[in-house]
Write a structure and sequence with these properties.
mainly alpha, two-stranded antiparallel sheet, 3 helices, 4% strand
Length: 105
């Protein structure tokens, strides 16, 4: 296996993780009130539906982060795990198409 070959399921999970992050950034900021009673972000357009969507996205992001972080591929890496994880993020962000590790000759 070369330095940057990743299993297809790992690449797909990282792509989905990045998509969840992007979707989370699209949710309007939740208004909040400080200790003095001042309301912040009252004009963001946030609705209770946004709160439900935000909760679902956070749950999905947690699931995908665990899937990526605990993938068996990482136990097969040498000392370059941090560099490999960064490459995976880049590859997934590019819409990467990595060959499955078991398909590499």
């Amino acid at each position: 296996m070369s330095q940057h070959d990743f299993p297809a399921d790992l690449v797909a999970a990282e792509q989905q993780r990045q998509e969840a992050l992007l979707a989370l950034r699209q949710v309007p900021p939740r208004p909040w009130t400080d200790a003095a009673g001042t309301v912040h972000r009252a004009d963001t357009g946030w609705t209770p539906d946004d709160g439900e969507r935000e909760a679902r996205l956070w749950e999905r992001l947690r699931e995908l982060s665990i899937t990526v972080g605990d993938h068996p591929h990482w136990s097969e890496r040498g000392d370059d795990v941090v560099a490999a994880r960064m490459r995976l993020k880049q590859l997934a962000g590019e819409g990467g198409s990595a060959e499955p590790a078991d398909a590499v000759s």
